[in-house]
Amino acid sequence: MSNSSINFTQRFLSIGITALLFVGCASAPEPVNQIPEGDFRDRITVKQNDKVRVSAGVPSALESEELFGKPLYERGIQPVWLEIENLSQEHIKFLPVGLDPQYFPPLEVANLDSSESTSSEAMVNPFFIEQGLPLILPPGQSLTGFVFSHLEEGTKAFNVDVIGSTFFETFTFFIPVPGLQVDHYNIDWKNLYTSDEWRDVNQDQLLRGIEEFACCVTDASGENTGDPLNLVLIGKPKDIYTAFLRAGWDETEAVTGASTWKTIRSFFSGENYRYSPVSSLYALGRAQDVAFQWTRESIHERNHLRLWMSRYTYQGVPVWIGQISRDIGVRFTKKTITTHKIDPQIDETREYLLENLAYAQSLKAYGYAGGVGEYTREAPRGNLTGDPWFTDGYRLVLWLSSEPIAVDDLKTLGWRKPHLE
Amino acid sequence: MFRLSGFLLLTLLLSACSNQQYRYEAFEQFDIESRAETRDSNNFQVRSAVLSDADAEALFGITMQDRDVQPVWLEITNNDTDLARVAISSVDPKYFPPAEVAYFFRKEFSKEGWMALEERLMELALPRFVLPGETVSGFVFTNHTTGTKAFNLDIFLGSLPPTFEQFTFFLTEPGFEPDHASIRFRDLYDETETIQVDSTGLNSVLEDFECCTQNHDGSERGRPVNIFIVSDAHDLLRALLRAGWLETPRSQTEEKTNPHYLFGRPADGVFRTPRDKKTDRSQLRLWKSPVVVDGKPMWAGQLLHAIGSKFELQEKLFGIHVDPDTIDGRNYVLQSFWYAQSLEQWALSPTGIKVPQDSPVKDFQGNSWFSPDKQRVVIWVSPTPVSMTEAIELKWSDSHNSGGDQQ
């Protein structure tokens, strides 16, 4: 065994011990609002239910290079360390495709720099093979290893999907990685409203409530209106994050006074947002609570989605009002020099989201409500940067699920029927 | 400052050039409907055709292929009593909305020309909703693919319980043929060669199944056959497309790129998965086997994953290295069906070959491989979507423990 292997083994022993320590105090408050310092072993996050315990850590660029002897971040590769303990009585399966659909197999990482002349034997690198994770984990056993994922800057957000014969569990992790210029904060979802402001509503009340929301977002002053509030989501914060990550969205955060939000510990403990600037838009008297983006080929081709948690709950589950738009390019403005040009056919983007979440098995039911008001292509409204938009005036209501739901099980809420009315 | 001035000057110059009017030819001139293929179900008829690049340019007045956009024409007739919802994303999850396509080409036109282009693309785009008794038609602006345009179209009905219809199209452009289109699958085996088995007896059949591929004359061993798929051909193709696998043109599956033989022939179909836009990393090779499981054919296969600094698997296999770990690929294929909602049932069969990682062997091309467990995966493909929790694991006796589960 080489010296480096010995060091590595020692490291792993200590990782195991650290993980055990963290498991022991999993209910203790977790640090928030700061980028952790030190080795990734100090940043291990543990999540568990009665069947599985998952510990995860993400080495920084420097740590990855030390661990693997290669500048993996420079090659767009980010190792995610996992320990999965099977607490159940059955064989369980860990599915790395759920963490990254195009993860790198260990021997691809080992041979990043190999050439045509590299001998085939030399490519069988035992050290990297040992870092891989098996598919199946017998009862009572644990496994540790790395998934080599695509690099994400800021907070590494990922799902760990574990499946047994009787259950499917997605553990959603948000792990800040040091060395990148990012901010993170948590929102105290439970204390967003005072106890007398929360209101659990029935289906009729919910429809009415949704239709009474303002038509559109505003600027900070509240005087100028922008894009339509064309989405309503029903889901716990966990459902929202799990569903959007599974559907390929990334978190973003606004660069504004929104960062004055209290950052006390939430029930969504220790789970931060990935920071990536999107402009702040306002609804319910504040900037968005959550923002996601879905990036396509270039930075100019993104779908943006902003959400605000309303004071309504339906069957005890929070109701969110939201806005989605699709960037189709960049244009110049007097106010902001450059801004993204949005697709004026705003309903197209709204309907795309339904399909996107349904195919990601993240959607339980959908329906439509009014509340925006109809605007035609000939007489469109404008957003805050002067882009026109037009719509049939309906809000798409999406009931999310963190449990996978097949697309042919998708239910309808049976509310408004925009295409028949 | 200088840079900014230069940039502004360039912008002004470009603006000065953009005074073209938008021109196009009428839809009726192209007789698109006559070349359409038709799919029928109980309550729906769907027709579809793909345009050549030249026709697309004439019809839309823009060179869409320059931006990797390919319009696909669809016509949907709803004979149901419910409103139908067309899932545009099922055709291409990264389709382009009409306004985005228009924006790509805005600089070729005056402002009015750009708006006219946008209006035309919106008018010709496929609507998402079809009323009962109505027929709608239009284009989906997809990512450009060369050769066969293979896609699914999913239609949802808002009724309770929800209803879901799927249509799979394989539209061929002139001069292109996918590898599997040239094979007469029905004639591959006669009745005497066919092995009929049920799912419980399959494991013992697999014990006698070839461990590995060979070279063309069968004189040297290739790589392990560790993936089996039980499915009708059509359902299999649909599931592969849904999971993001791409077909391979027949021209690229000659012996140079497809040298592994099973049952005395190269793979019946090779499917590729691109990791990013330009590089293909994995090849799934499939052969129809003589085994029929509960009335459905079984396909045998293997996954090759390129590693090293050259990745263009579809163009050349000589000079690239293949991942020696044959288990990761096997597991990847299982997961690709799982996440694509196509996995009805699966099993591990400890009937493969065991080659420890500390003593790898070489295939006839000189690529090392190892397989520390003996497991082969058997995948039963569902013709309808299955959520991940609904997929059933079939356990043959002690299949988890034979040969170990180590990667």
- Global structural class of chain A: alpha+beta
Q: Alpha-carbon distance between the termini of chain B?
A: 58 Å
Major sheet description of chain B = 10 strands, mixed
Task: Please bin the fraction of helical residues of chain A.
Answer: 10-25%
Strand percentage of chain B, roughly? 25-35%
Number of strands of chain B: 24
User: Mean of residue pLDDT of chain B?
Assistant: 84
User: How many DSSP E strands of chain A?
Assistant: 25
* Number of structurally distinct domains of chain B: 2
- Overall 3D geometry of chain A? globular
> How many alpha or pi helices of chain A?
7
Unreliable sequence segments of chain A? 1-37, 180-185, 254-276
> Rounded to an integer, what's the Rg of chain A over CA atoms?
23 Å
Low-confidence stretches of chain B: 1-17, 311-318, 400-407
Note the quaternary state here: heterodimer
Description:
The complex is a heterodimer of chains A (421) and B (407). Chain A has helices at 3-24, 61-68, 106-110, 126-131, 203-212, 237-246, 346-359, and strands at residues 45-48, 52-57, 77-86, 92-95, 136-137, 142-150, 155-163, 168-176, 199-201, 216-218, 225-228, 231-234, 250-254, 277-278, 282-283, 286-287, 290-295, 302-314, 317-333, 337-342, 363-369, 381-382, 388-389, 395-400, 411-412. Chain A is of the alpha+beta class and 421 residues long. Chain A folds into 2 domains: 3-176, no CATH class; 189-412, no CATH class. In chain A, strands 9, 12, 13, 14, 17, 18, 19, 20, 21, 24 and 25 form an 11-stranded mixed sheet that branches. Chain A starts with a helix and ends in a 9-residue tail after the last strand. By secondary structure, chain B is α+β, with helices and mostly antiparallel strands. Chain B folds into 2 domains: 22-171, Immunoglobulin-like; 179-394, no CATH class. Helix content of chain B is 19%, strand content 31%. Chain B has helices at 2-17, 53-60, 88-91, 98-104, 111-124, 202-207, 233-242, 326-339; strands spanning 37-40, 44-50, 69-78, 84-87, 129-130, 135-143, 149-157, 163-171, 195-197, 212-214, 221-224, 227-230, 246-247, 261-262, 265-266, 269-274, 280-293, 296-307, 321-322, 343-349, 361-362, 368-369, 376-381, 392-394. In chain B, the strands form 6 sheets. In chain B, strands 9, 12, 13, 16, 17, 18, 19, 20, 23 and 24 form a 10-stranded mixed sheet that branches. Chain B has a 4-stranded antiparallel sheet with strand order 1-2-3-6, with no helix packed on it. In chain B, strand 14 (261-262) and strand 15 (265-266) form a beta hairpin. In chain B, helix 4 (98-104) runs antiparallel to helix 5 (111-124). At the A-B interface, helix 3, strand 5, strand 19, helix 7 and strand 25 of A face helix 3, helix 4 and helix 8 of B.
